[in-house]
Design a protein that fits this description.
Blueprint: E1 4-6, H1 9-15, H2 18-21, H3 25-29, E2 32-33, H4 34-41, H5 45-57, E3 61-67, E4 74-79, E5 84-86, H6 93-100, H7 103-116, E6 123-127, E7 133-137, E8 151-154, H8 161-178
Length: about 200
């Protein structure tokens, strides 16, 4: 499917709220009933049913048919596309701040950090091979344990515009190798690449 351009505030707000947009995933992959999608996502039926109503009203989801069964037939839905492009102009000021700011991630990280902090024994502050300062929480050479926190921060990379694009592409490729897995625990990942000049 070609990318579907989002120009309405309601649809833009839904697609830029991570927890809500996650609920659209099964319908972006294939035609689904709400019950099947709820089982796939591991969320309560009522929560997904409510979100489906909002997705339909915002034009992100369409009714594709009904599946016969004893009693009432089950309605099937499909996302209008498997790729969306959100016009930033469609976002309210609050939605822009939430999308580009740290509010959502800060709340999630602080909440999890309180639970995971007991696993963090040391904060490493060191210089990398190029002399840049690196602040790293968690084990230096081991991946974070389930429920643990691992953070790496550095403001010392020096990249040409092409190198920055290459790094972005490389990071996306690494992330893609882990996406779509059914096993394991959900983890959050945030990567910011921005010009500090």
């Amino acid at each position: 499917m070609p990318p579907h351009r989002i120009t309405t505030a309601a649809a833009a707000a839904l697609l830029t709220q991570v927890d809500t947009a996650q609920l659209l995933k099964p319908f972006m992959r294939s035609e689904q009933t709400v019950a099947a999608a709820a089982r796939e996502l591991g969320v309560p039926f009522k929560r997904l049913h409510h979100a489906v109503g909002r997705f339909v009203a915002a034009g992100l989801l369409t009714v594709t048919g009904q599946r016969a069964r004893r009693g009432r037939p089950m309605t099937t839905y499909r996302a209008v596309s498997d790729t969306f492009e959100v016009d930033v102009a469609a976002l309210s000021l609050a939605d822009r701040e939430r999308t580009f700011g740290d509010g959502y991630w800060n709340r999630r990280v602080l909440d999890r950090m309180a639970r995971a902090a007991h696993d963090v024994q040391v904060i490493h502050v060191h210089l990398n091979d190029q002399g840049g300062l690196v602040i790293q929480h968690g084990p230096e050479s081991q991946p974070a344990a389930p429920g643990a926190l691992w953070q790496l921060r550095t403001a010392t990379l020096r990249l040409t515009p092409q190198e920055a694009r290459d790094l972005q592409r490389d990071l996306e490729a690494v992330i893609a190798t882990y996406s779509g897995r059914e096993e394991g625990q959900r983890v959050g990942l945030r990567v910011d690449l921005l010009d500090l000049n």
